[in-house]
Design brief:
Blueprint lengths: L1 E6 L5 H6 L10 E5 L13 H13 L3 E7 L10 H10 L4 H4 L3 E4 L2 E6 L2 E6 H4 L3 E7 L1 E3 L3 E3 L1 H6 L5 H9 L3 E3 L9 H5 L5 E4 L2 E4 L9 H5 L5 E3 L4 H13 L3 E8 L2 E2 L11 E3 L3 E5 L2 H15 L3 H6 L4 H9 L7 E5 L1
Parallel strand pairs: 1-18, 2-3, 2-7, 3-4, 7-14
Antiparallel strand pairs: 1-17, 5-6, 8-9, 10-13, 11-12, 14-17, 15-16
Bound molecules: iron/sulfur cluster (2 copies).
Length: 328
């Protein structure tokens, strides 16, 4: 049974980290993998909170730096230099957080379950990684937790793009009943259905796979693979054979991701923090705690079951969904 430590007071952070051999990170340069927020997003991790974590790591002779990667969509996070500027605008300066920010724009391919995932250079070269995740909803995965932070945030823009393209729908006319559900659930209004026509606007489709997941007739299938499956595989590519500690922040739990400029509203009250050495256990514990407060809130809000990434991750050996919650 994997353990996950739960706490609500940041003064207990070190006690939580001690459960997972944080001292073995001492003397190492360690990336703190996190998302520093899309332009106009209001819910990304607070620099004050990040500084508390960084200070705790520095106290035990760890040399941390904040780390993220460039993204596929347009906006300041698409390029390294403009993401660095945005991080400063969001308060992630060395003065505020106590360490530097590194944005990667290239990586090294790692094969997982038959597909290549380009893992960011600084993740590849690190033996020890600290994954700091703000847990919230996500339009393509229901919930964005540690698996999402790594699986999308730890790989290059090219790999992100390929993962999304693989989840685009392929239409099978003979099975379609023209019920229109795929058009209703598409978060990008990319599908139109009017019997006998079914159309997808290729420019608007972001490859989230929500339409495929919601078609009860199997009239659309993934071009390559379920996005939540490749997400779990990419997360495994980032962390396999490494020492990793995960911290999930269950606060400002918005409907959508920190990558969404319009991520609100808040859909669940603040809960607290979780620490673990297992990405599957910590995400399952996060999801269970949120479901205890607001049952199935991510699935209702985003029309997709967030549990799939956890199940896929477990199947490919990324971690275990069995956990024991220890409250401190
Ligand atoms: S949900 Fe499936 S059956 Fe319904 S219109 Fe879309 S593709 Fe056709
Ligand atoms: S994959 Fe996502 S964006 Fe593309 S058509 Fe389906 S629901 Fe819409």
């Amino acid at each position: 049974m994997k353990k996950v430590v739960f706490f609500t007071d940041l003064k207990k952070l070190y006690d939580a980290l001690e459960n997972f051999q944080i001292k073995s990170f001492a003397g190492k340069k360690v990336p703190v993998k996190l998302h520093m927020g899309e332009e106009k997003n209001k819910f990304f991790p607070r620099p004050e909170f990040v500084k508390t974590v960084v200070d705790e790591l520095k106290k035990i002779n760890i040399d941390p730096y904040l780390h993220d990667t460039t993204v596929v969509y347009s906006g300041p996070r698409r390029r390294k230099e403009s993401y660095e500027q945005l991080a400063i605008q969001h308060g992630f300066t060395p003065e505020n957080v106590g360490c530097n920010v590194v944005i990667d724009d290239s990586g090294v391919p790692i094969k997982i379950e038959g597909r290549d995932y380009e893992v960011a250079d600084h993740i590849i070269e690190s033996s020890h990684i600290f994954v700091l995740t703000h847990v919230k909803g996500h339009i393509a995965t229901g919930m964005g937790g540690a698996i999402k932070n790594l699986g999308m945030g730890g790989v290059t823009r090219e790999t992100k793009s390929r993962m999304h393209y693989g989840a685009r729908p392929i239409y099978k006319k003979d099975a379609c009943t023209y019920c229109g559900i795929c058009a209703e659930v598409c978060p990008f209004d990319a599908i139109s259905v009017e019997k006998p026509n079914w159309n997808r606007n290729k420019q608007s489709c972001f490859g989230c796979g929500v339409c495929v997941d919601n078609c009860k007739e199997n009239a659309i299938e993934y071009e390559d693979a379920d996005f939540q499956y490749v997400l779990a595989c990419a997360a495994k590519a980032c962390v396999q054979d490494k020492n990793v500690i995960y911290l999930n922040e269950l606060k400002r739990i918005a409907r959508s991701c920190d990558c969404d400029p319009y991520a609100g509203p808040i859909i669940c009250p603040d809960i607290g923090y979780l620490v673990s050495d297992d990405p599957i256990a910590i995400d399952k514990a996060s999801l269970d705690l949120i479901n205890d407060v607001k049952k199935d809130v991510f699935e209702k809000e985003n029309k997709i079951n967030p549990l799939k990434q956890i199940k896929y991750g477990e199947e490919i050996g990324l971690g275990s969904s069995s956990y024991q919650l220890i409250e401190i």
